[in-house]
């Protein structure tokens, strides 16, 4: 039985070259008449930094700040997506209709990518990797590597160019 591709999870770090990987997601969505779910994860502040922040910022205000950052990230993604579609696609409205959902979540990227792929019932995951060399991969690990190792569905990892591509989202 052939897997039907209905939804594609595109995880982005909002870097300049992340739009390069979005082109692959868009191409796959067009080819298979699928939807795209865009996910951006806001990484948590390390515990030591959070401890010091509590001295200066009330916990309730901290939660408000996180919600505000989520809303701003969603607006930023929508704006960048519209600009990208106008610039890169002859049919900008079609490009925009491919995106069914934009998610911005606080948490650890690997966990949130895998959770979103399951919750949104995505058929595959597409994400870019900066590929910063053997030693960084060995010592620091990589979101892309961890997603690839743990995912139970197909994962497309798109190597992002080191130089600026002029493609932005």
Protein described:
The protein is 51% helix and 19% strand. With 169 residues, the chain is α/β, with parallel strands linked by helices. Strands 3-2-1-4-5 form a five-stranded parallel beta sheet, with helices on both faces. α1 (18-32) links the parallel β1 (7-11) and β2 (35-42).
Strand-helix topology:
Layout: E1 7-11, H1 18-32, E2 35-42, H2 47-56, H3 59-88, H4 92-97, E3 99-106, H5 109-119, E4 124-129, H6 134-140, H7 143-150, E5 155-159
Parallel strand pairs: 1-2, 1-4, 2-3, 4-5
Helix pairs in contact: 5-7
What descriptive keywords fit this protein?
169 residues; alpha/beta; 7 helices; 5 strands
Number of strands: 5
Numbering strands along the chain, what is their spatial order in the largest sheet? Answer: 3-2-1-4-5
Instruction: Report the major sheet.
Output: 5 strands, parallel
Number of helices: 7
Strand/helix succession: EHEHHHEHEHHE
Question: Over all CA atoms, what is the radius of gyration?
Answer: 17 Å
Mean pLDDT: 80
């Amino acid at each position: 039985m052939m897997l039907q591709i209905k939804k594609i999870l595109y995880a982005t770090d909002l870097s300049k070259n992340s739009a390069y990987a979005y082109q692959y997601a868009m191409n796959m969505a067009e080819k298979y008449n699928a939807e795209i779910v865009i996910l951006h994860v806001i990484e948590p502040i390390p515990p030591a930094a959070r401890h010091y922040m509590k001295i200066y910022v009330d916990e309730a205000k901290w939660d408000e700040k996180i919600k505000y950052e989520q809303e701003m990230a969603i607006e930023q993604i929508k704006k960048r997506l519209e600009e990208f579609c106008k610039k890169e696609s002859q049919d900008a409205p079609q490009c925009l209709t491919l995106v069914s959902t934009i998610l911005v979540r606080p948490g650890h990227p690997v966990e949130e990518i895998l959770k979103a792929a399951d919750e949104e019932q995505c058929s595959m995951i597409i994400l870019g990797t900066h590929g910063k060399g053997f030693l960084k991969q060995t010592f620091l690990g990589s979101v892309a590597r961890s997603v690839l190792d743990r995912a139970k569905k197909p994962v497309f990892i798109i190597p992002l160019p080191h130089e600026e591509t002029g493609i932005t989202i």
